[in-house]
Amino acid sequence: MTHPALDRGSVAVITGAASGIGLATAQALSARGMGIVLVDLDQGALQAAAATLDGPSLCRAMDVADPDAIDALAEAAHERFGRVDLLMNNAATRVAGGGDDTLDNWRRTMEVNFWAAVLAERAFLPRMLAAGRPGLILNTGSKQGITNPPGNVIYNVTKSALKTYTEQLQHQLRNTEGCRISAHLLVPGFTLTGPHRPDPGGWSPAELVAYMLPRLERGDFYIICPDNEVTPEMDARRMAWAAGDMIENRPPLSRWHPDWAERFKAQS
Ligand SMILES: NC(=O)c1ccc[n+]([C@@H]2O[C@H](COP(=O)([O-])OP(=O)(O)OC[C@H]3O[C@@H](n4cnc5c(N)ncnc54)[C@H](O)[C@@H]3O)[C@@H](O)[C@H]2O)c1
Distance, CA 19 to ligand 1 centroid (Å)? Predict the structure, then answer.
């Protein structure tokens, strides 16, 4: 089964495409005969990425958090290819800080990891709807935005906002008469990309994309990827435990609370 938005001749706009998951997605879709618009911060890195593709591409060096640059990107993509069938909001910045980090770090991370997806949807979706063709919006979330492990508060908040936003977007699209666009949430497992050292527990970006594409094609909204250490069953138990904090009146993040950690482990 193939999704028409992923057919030969369709066009994908991918942010964070110079590296990691974005680049592996660009390579897989280019190999299928799609045109690719690669978006990232650095022109040299983009050109190196584009050189690994099989087909037509357009490189845009820009900051995804810049509203004017996003509008110009939508113009440029339509001018070059005349259509956009897949928008993948995938660029992210990682701030390791806790909640007491600077407000500048809070704002910047929110703008790149969350607001950029809202800006891009506003710039691209009206034209995708007007084209009347099937289309896809794919937002890259994180397990940290679902189970909220302690530590990277800012990153977790941005990814949980993106999850809520993407769920609402898909609900709205599903209830729009005649709409052939759908939104999806990609939730990578541990994937060996730019910031990560080699690790037997991680998947390669190509493995992740091979897992993601058939699920996207069959219409899954949540595409929650395992890795070499975390199985889908383990993810299911972790997500159910996090929801159980509310249902069972446990403290938040009880999985990491001394009174509860052993009970979670005993269940696993
Ligand atoms: N690798 C993992 O284990 C993992 C796990 C969960 C979620 N994710 C998510 O996957 C997505 C892709 O990350 P990755 O792991 O491939 O990392 P990566 O660092 O290889 O790729 C991210 C890309 O985004 C670009 N980028 C950052 N800020 C930008 C900006 N303001 N404007 C334009 N481009 C910008 C970077 O230059 C980089 O090329 C991210 O959303 C990340 O949060 C990754």
Answer: 7
What is the domain partition of the chain in residue ranges?
4-228, 231-268
Q: How far away, in angstroms, is 243 Cα from ligand 1 center?
A: 27
- E strand or H helix that includes residue 86: strand 86-89
Name, in order, each residue with C-beta under 8 angstroms of 166's C-beta and a sequence gap of 6 or more: 117, 137, 139, 141, 183, 184, 185
| Banded model confidence at residue 111, pLDDT cuts 50, 70, 90 | very high
227 Cα–ligand 1 center, Å? 17
Q: Is residue 211 annotated as part of the catalytic site, yes or no?
A: no
pLDDT digits (tens, 9 = 90+) for 80-109: 999 999 999 999 998 767 888 899 999 999
Whether the model clears a pTM of 0.90, i.e. scores above it, the answer is yes
User: 183 forms bridges with which residues in the sheet?
Assistant: 137
**CA 113 to ligand 1: nearest atom:** 41
Q: Is the distance from CB of 122 to CB of 87 less than 8 angstroms?
A: no
Q: Of all atoms in ligand 1, which is nearest to the CA of residue 42?
A: 37
- Kindly state if the Cβ of 20 falls inside 6 Å of ligand 1: yes
Question: DSSP letter at 114?
Answer: I
pLDDT tens for 205-257 read: 999 999 999 999 999 999 999 999 999 999 999 999 999 999 999 999 999 99
Superfamily, domain 4-228: NAD(P)-binding Rossmann-like Domain (3.40.50.720)
